[in-house]
Amino acid sequence: MLYIKSKNSTDPHFNLAMEEYILKYLNLAEEYLLLWQNEPAIIIGRHQNTLEEVNMDYTRENNIHVVRRLSGGGAVYHDLGNLNFTFIRRAIRSELLDLKSFTQPVIHALKKLGVNAEVSGRNDLTIEGKKFSGNAQYLYKNNILHHGTLLFDSDLSELNKALRVQADKIESKGIKSVRSRVTNIREHIKGDQDTNINEFTALLRDAVAEVQGENFAEYTLGEKDYEGIRALMQERYLTWQWNYGQSPAFNIKNSRRFARGKVETLLEIKEGLIANCKIYGDFLGLVSLHDFEEGIKGIRYEEKDIDTFLQGQDMKKLFGGIERRELLSCLLGR
Predict the structure, then answer these.
(1) What is the pLDDT of residues 29-49, one digit of tens each?
(2) CA distances, 205 to each of 34, 111, 257 (Å)
(3) What is the C-alpha to C-alpha distance for residues 245 and 49, in angstroms, rounded to an integer?
(4) How many domains does the chain have?
(5) Contact at 8 Å (CB) between 277 and 290?
């Protein structure tokens, strides 16, 4: 495993471009670890409707970046009190949507601080039942990117103000507020709470190195790599189209929350056929939905025809475990 020491950028556009560059263009005979931070930003899941997830007035007034990532899942708030970790390596199908093989070093590092953490739900790490880490994955060819947040000493009041948390998400978890669901790691460190985020970053890096043994080394990106990262940043992560996008015309809109996440479907139906399709949600899909949304065009808006189409799709990769019958019920509004 190679630990990539990059320029100390806290620009979320650059950092997300760096993840993509490493995933797609570096030698994936190696495994990579990145530890990085962003200045205040809302990071939107790949399949989410940005305008419905973000308090746009608040983010604009407070200079909070809004950037979409490659992976699925829900919107998260980043600031300099939050540490992000990324593992990139060859994909093993049994690891898809499996958190434990990627988050064990995090749990190991926290135990050294006297903090007992555990995997909870579909993509969370928790301390005493409160979330401090959300995780997601993205699949590219035979390579997997797994990344997660670590709330170490974040301003949780800003998190509340910048995000629009949907009422059905709160109700589904039986809680009253976002603040009641999340916690900072620093609050749970036993005894000495003077540990800062830089020390925690080093501790996490060392925990991974301990597991890897002699197979762990540092790697420095070259100027050619940085040129590629900056090009990706300009082409994707700084564009309005990527971060906000446009919804197609639609005349049927349905929304459902399932155990594996929320799905919202927008369909334009012309003469009984699906002419346009857009799917939003916080489900943990591993790949782009572009081919799915294009492929369903021209299908009759009938249960049998849509179900036949869905039977040919890899639901785990596309929708992170949302079942075929669940998606069908959302598309049909039943």
Answers:
(1) 789 999 999 999 999 999 999
(2) 9, 14, 37
(3) 8
(4) 2
(5) no
pTM: 0.88
Q: How far apart are CA 110 and CA 116, in angstroms?
A: 7
Q: pLDDT digit string (tens) for 145-158?
A: 999 999 999 998 88
Same-domain status, 269 and 226 = no
Nearest to 105 by CA among 31, 204, 30, 198: 204
Q: DSSP characters for 306-318?
A: HHHHHHTS-HHHH
Please give the average per-residue pLDDT across 128-149, as a whole number. 94
pLDDT at residue 177 in the model: 42
Long-range contacts of 248-251 (CB under 8 A, 24+ apart): 248/276, 248/277, 248/278, 249/276, 250/276, 250/278
- Residue carrying the six token digits 């992000």: 84
Question: Which of 70, 93, 62, 81 is CA-nearest to residue 16?
Answer: 70
pLDDT, position 165: 61
Report the candidate in 116, 104, 111, 188 with the shortest Cα–Cα distance to residue 151.
188
Could you tell me if 79 and 205 lie in one domain?
yes
Q: Give φ, ψ of 269 to 5 degrees.
A: -110, 125
Answer whether 131's CB lies under 8 Å from 182's CB: yes
If pLDDT is split at 50, 70 and 90, which confidence band does 170 have?
very low
Whether residues 203 and 277 share a domain: the answer is: no
Band (112; pLDDT cuts 50, 70, 90)? confident
Q: What's the DSSP call for residue 333?
A: T
Distance of CA 324 to CAs 13, 306, 316, 320, 327, Å? 34, 10, 10, 11, 5
- How far, in Å, CA of 280 to CA of 289, rounded? 10
Domain hosting 219: range is 2-243
CA dist 195 and 248 (Å) reads 49
